[in-house]
Write a structure and sequence with these properties.
The structure is a homodimer of 418-residue chains. Helix content of chain A is 41%, strand content 24%. The first copy, chain A, contains 15 helices and 17 strands. In chain A, helix 2 runs parallel beside helix 6 and helix 3 crosses helix 4. The relative contact order of chain A is 0.07. Chains A and B meet through helix 2, strand 2, helix 3, helix 11 and strand 14 of A and helix 2, strand 2, helix 3, helix 11 and strand 14 of B.
Chain lengths: 418, 418
Amino acid sequence: MKAEIIAVGSELLLGQISNTNARFISSQLAEIGIDVFFHTVVGDNPNRLLDSIKIAEERADLIIFTGGLGPTKDDLTKETISKHLNKKLVFDENAMIFIEDFFKRMNREMTENNKKQALVLEGCTVLENKHGMAPGMLLATKSHAYMLLPGPPKEMEPMFQFEAKPLLLKLLHNETVIMSHVIRFYGIGEAELETKVQDLLDNQTNPTLAPLASDGEVTLRLTAKSDTEKDAWQKIEALQAEILHRVGKFVYGYNNDSLASKLRDILIENELTISAAESMTAGLFQSELAAVPGMGEALVGGMITYTEDVKIKQLGVNEAIIKEFSVVSSQCAEEMAVRVKEKFNTNIGIGITGAAGPDGHGGQPAGTVWIGIAYGEMAPISYKLNLSGMRNTNRLRAVKFTIHYLLQLLREQGNARI
Amino acid sequence: MKAEIIAVGSELLLGQISNTNARFISSQLAEIGIDVFFHTVVGDNPNRLLDSIKIAEERADLIIFTGGLGPTKDDLTKETISKHLNKKLVFDENAMIFIEDFFKRMNREMTENNKKQALVLEGCTVLENKHGMAPGMLLATKSHAYMLLPGPPKEMEPMFQFEAKPLLLKLLHNETVIMSHVIRFYGIGEAELETKVQDLLDNQTNPTLAPLASDGEVTLRLTAKSDTEKDAWQKIEALQAEILHRVGKFVYGYNNDSLASKLRDILIENELTISAAESMTAGLFQSELAAVPGMGEALVGGMITYTEDVKIKQLGVNEAIIKEFSVVSSQCAEEMAVRVKEKFNTNIGIGITGAAGPDGHGGQPAGTVWIGIAYGEMAPISYKLNLSGMRNTNRLRAVKFTIHYLLQLLREQGNARI
């Protein structure tokens, strides 16, 4: 099956937004084996949209439209397709009820033009919109399948995954089970990881194996096809076992885990509390932890010690340590960790100090970071990073490495099941 | 002049990356008055690329290609155009010298296929690539102009701005000066701002006026055309004066200013120091300040007071205040601001407390935030927010509103020139 994605919206042609919908849908279609040969972007203009549809019909079996399903006069995707295919627009009752409810809940009066959003192509399969008002549609003719999806990504993405994708699998007369599983790594570069699993990458068939890097993290996506879920999962498990055998120590989690959510789970499961004293990261470590709901049971609080004076007077860092080793040193990071743990009375204390850049700091070049960890009754330990990014990349990397090292330590201490 | 942008690359059709080049080029073309009617994405396939070119020739005068100029066999943009237009590929000496130098500098041996990058279409204008090896090209025939640009944004964007745009202005026979100026707002919604300047939006000609909203901020871009820079700037100034007259109190800066960079400038200029006690934002406020280089002169440090216990024992918040008014209250926010200012001995103290969500907190529904500001000898003041976003949107909004209110206060106190 050959697909083309047509995004409708003048805001795309004015360069106000990127066509991220095409990227999302393409990656989803690649997973289920549908080839995408073209993306087209066209403005809110019925004649040019019609031309685009005619061109797409020549070169694709499946045409997926995004955008132009809203309430205003500019929104004309379904109207244009309706005319072109000679299919009436009819009211969808469920969509109408949802729209009326929406306005009641918001205590706003529904204007007449909003009813237009409940109109769907006669004979289509309606795709429910759980995050907005305009429903999606799938209409199959003898020669083509037309899928209409809303433009806003927060409406389109869940609709595609949970409504559209199963329908497309049916269209493919595909009873195959397709199962994906993501292994998440930290502390290893993409190139190094690829080298370690090169033979697996070269010989992949089923499961397929796809590496992806972003923000200093690397993931491997394993995708298996089979007749049954059980068999697909067994295929994934076999390949995963081999990967863990080779690079398991860099694995921090799976699928939707994040470094911070993984840390939260382990802290809460083991009833551990944490505090931090942050210098170069200036609160970013604790903010990243608090970004995960439910962190309140483990994260007590801590200190931002941007100046030397605050380190000494507020946190209680021994002035002699700073004098002898400077603020960017393993000694200072460990002392910060010990002091904050003591002061905030937690099981774990973290100290982060370094030179974010662009300038050096504490006699160290930009990118030097020391991470101190004080854990229970153990002597404090510290880790050095030599980062080469820009200021805020370095700050974020320092935070992620801190979580990574802490996860490794907790695992070594038998506190974490990974 | 009508333009079409054709992006060449199978990685786009696999959904590995978004077509951000089309967004960038479109916004640049909009500024100089060239209409973009279509974007097309096509894979690394010569037949399908040729089809796309033929379609584009029917509906555009200017066809801009991105990608497919590299050294590998997959890269075939210029080869396909060369055949189609019957124009030879010839070596460009400058590009060849640059490529040889590049490999010398990197101490790497140049492989034969890299020479291919120095080939350009006979008779074209060569666009220098300052950030990579493949040069760009502009070839004008009787009926069309073909512009070929490299795919990597870090090469394409500067090439477009500094090499391609002036050439396009010449193509337009346009000696006009085009000047853009951005006014940045906070604390006013896009809809409200548009209402206040609706007549200016409706009647815009020169300068043009374009609103844009993102991350809770709104900007207005003023773009003027004229024969001279002086006159273009006068046109912008006249419209800006009218805008400031109506909604000036929501303006926090211009062009590349950010809320945090603006605050840094004002703090440093007035030799003011700042500390913060953060509950729901858990360090995000201070981390956002520290994200701006040079903040060290003003930001001393502060405290993350995630639990009630830490608020009382570490920060010194009066327990009776929490008992009587709860942790999410104006009284608690003000007390936090006063205590942190005192403890860290700064000119300004900030207290942020609230319920980020998804659950409520301190007897308040999710999205309730209190921001306390203690400034010099003034009595502390506080601001309430009722936010409706997700957890981390609310946390970021709370931070931005804190900076916004602080900027307003400093301006009222005569500390800021805006």
